[in-house]
Write a structure and sequence with these properties.
This protein is of the alpha+beta class and 266 residues long. The chain contains six helices and twelve strands. The strands form three sheets. A five-stranded antiparallel beta sheet has the order 2-6-5-4-3, with helices on one face. The termini are far apart. Bound molecules: zinc ion.
């Protein structure tokens, strides 16, 4: 008894299960895509459904209900990520304007599936977003840049590049607590027994920070004939060049012996 329309419908959806959102997002114009997506997501949650980015290019993004898309035995291990996909045709379109702002348009307000009666029906969406959050932080900790993280996230990703920057910055603040980055680094060195020595000027400002890891020290003691010393020019935001002490072992292979941040290279 197929009642739903659409060539790709796989599940029969009784017509009584169709429902139409009765409100529209209050705001229609946004200074950037990130604020548009964030408002749309909040509005969808208030209306008991969740959104994903169906397709996007530089001027246009289509947001669909998480029940959108036909069910596909997925490439993520054979299980659909969000329970049953009913090929729901609910759509929000985001269009970039010539002045750089973004407009939001509700182009199809009708869902073809049951409306969850409570937010507990949204558990899948929340679980997905938590998993995605962890994945973003894991990639960021591995020094993957936000642009690359965007490419690595799967099709259900709703996070914009700005969301990723914000998430990473929040996590950084959480880790730092009240400490400055330098206090955090020194604490980390102390707690993990990493050999280090800091140098300060008369005003108490840091002028140098030497540190060495256990393996580097052991190798340096063993192969102590040749050391190459040079400063990298990829300085950090405090403009301290990093001096890298490279040793050479008996197989003429190099190893990192120790490091030092210096205030200037002379
Ligand atoms: Zn829907």
């Amino acid at each position: 008894m197929p009642t739903a329309t659409g060539a790709h419908t796989i599940f029969d959806v009784p017509a009584s299960n169709q429902w139409t959102v009765t409100t529209e997002p209050n705001q229609k114009q946004f200074p950037d895509l990130s604020s548009l997506v964030s408002t749309a997501k909040t509005w969808a949650t208030e209306n008991m459904f969740s959104l994903f980015k169906l397709c996007s290019d530089k001027d246009k993004v289509v947001l669909a209900c998480s029940h959108g898309n036909e069910y596909r035995p997925s490439n993520h291990g054979g299980k659909a990520r969000d329970g049953i996909k009913t090929d729901c045709k609910f759509r929000l379109n985001a269009q970039k304007q010539s002045n750089g702002s973004w407009n939001l348009n509700l182009t199809n307000p009708t869902h073809n599936h049951a409306r969850p009666s409570s937010l507990s029906g949204m558990a899948n969406a929340r679980r997905d977003s938590n998993q995605q959050h962890e994945e973003i932080l894991r990639l960021s900790a591995a020094n993957v840049r936000p642009n690359q993280i965007m490419q690595l996230l799967d099709e259900n990703n709703l996070a914009t590049k700005k969301d990723i920057y914000n998430m990473v910055a929040r996590e950084r603040r959480r880790k730092l607590q009240d400490k400055s980055p330098l206090q955090y680094l020194l604490n980390h060195f102390r707690e993990t027994n990493i050999f280090h020595q800091s140098y300060t000027n008369d005003a108490g400002q840091l002028t140098g920070l030497f540190f060495a890891f256990e393996e580097g020290i052991a190798l340096g003691k063993r192969f102590n004939t040749i050391f190459l010393v040079d400063a990298t020019y990829k300085t950090n935001r405090f403009k301290l060049p990093l001096v890298h002490f490279v040793g050479v072992n008996c197989f003429k292979k190099t190893f990192s012996a120790c490091f030092m941040f210096i205030s200037k290279e002379d």
